[in-house]
Amino acid sequence: MPRPTGRVLTLLELLQSGGTRTVAELADRLGVEGRTVRRYVEHLTDLGVPVESVRGRYGGYRLAPGYRLPPLMLTEDEALAVLLGLVAGRRAGLTTTEHTANETASAKIRRVLPKHVARRLDALLEDLAFTDQPGEFEAPDTGVLLTFADAVRHRRPVSIRYTDRNGRRTERTLHTYGVVAHAGRWYVTGKDPQIGEDRTFRLDRIMDARTLPGSFEAPVGPGPAQRVLSGFATAEYQHEVTLRIHGTAQQIRAHLPASIASLEEHESQVGQDRVAERWRVELRAERLDWLPPVLASLDRPFVVERPDELRDLIEAFADRLASYARQA
Fold first, then answer.
1. 308: CB partners within 8 A, 6+ apart
2. For 209, which of 2, 78, 125, 147 could close a Cys bridge (C-beta 3.0–4.6 Å)?
3. pLDDT tens digits for range 136-169
């Protein structure tokens, strides 16, 4: 028979799964009577766990927001999910400046696990191999990240101090649309009301963020992630490239993702057995030498509208490939 302490901990685990649980449901899950459930709830409140009673037809018990986190109870699968999430987040660079928080959280979870479970998880984590290198990106400040999250939720303007890639420091106001994690970095996107245009900023370059009074209307159209990717594709760089490519959007996007290039349907030609899609592709780049290999791997017919320099690079790349193919 389970001991009363074990049932109390099971009750806590049920409540931590979320929502309101009726007395009848809890009694059935614990194998006890309703009055025993109420006694177990009193045990939890005596321990400082914030359990509140919900009255009404669908009433019962639920965990209430408290000033401290109640004890967590994790199954073996849940513990594995949390630890793998911590490892993946650390490797991807999606952590805050509190680097030790990741390590201490992992250590706390391992410390309370049964020994046999801990050994199995440690064996997995020690032998786990990754095909990519760990992220070595600058991490954002925790306070800045949480300030933007709250501003997005309540549509509040935010005052920021920002340092750009050239070291220039500016102060500005941002109507924040959302926070986006992309390629190991955190970004925030929103409208700069001073210039009336959308802007995207790296969170690790924001030194200070303060919520301001007032509010703004949520924008219509693309979501924050799409806005960030579009911002990358249209950023100011040395070269502006325009191509016409025959192929499907999926074929083109496999080599020129939305963070690099924008696509616009140019025209479609109806052949004997299929429609040949043509797309106008625009992108900006500091250098052009990476584009010929990408276009070659795309293996679709294309036309270079601009710049002429790209045509020369493609011809030189093709000549090199041909010379390699002729070698014995």
1. none
2. 147
3. 666 777 778 888 888 888 888 999 999 887 888 9
Residues 6+ apart with CB under 8 A from 61: 15, 20, 21, 23, 26, 37, 41, 51, 52, 53, 54
CA-angle at 270, arms to 266 and 274, nearest 5°:
110
CA-closest candidate to residue 74, choices 101, 110, 100: 110
Contact assessment for residue 11 and residue 41, using Cβ atoms and an 8 Å cutoff? yes
Dihedral over Cα of 47, 51, 55, 58: its sign: negative
What is the C-alpha separation between 109 and 4, in angstroms, rounded? Answer: 24
User: Using H for helix, E for strand and C for coil, what is the string for 152-190?
Assistant: HHHCCEEEEEEECCCCCEEEEEEEEEEEEEECCEEEEEE
So what's the pLDDT on residue 154? Answer: 86
pLDDT band at 53 (very low <50, low <70, confident <90, very high): confident
Task: Give the number of other CB atoms < 10 A from CB of residue 166.
Answer: 5
Look up residue 205 and give its amino acid. Answer: R
What value does the CA radius of gyration of the chain take, rounded to a whole number of Å?
28
Count of other CB atoms within 10 angstroms of residue 74: 17
- What are the beta bridge partners of residue 53? 61
User: What is the residue type of 23?
Assistant: V
Residue 209's H or E segment, with its range, is strand 206-211
Query: In Å, how far from its chain's centre is CA 99?
Result: 18
The SS3 call for residue 145 is: helix
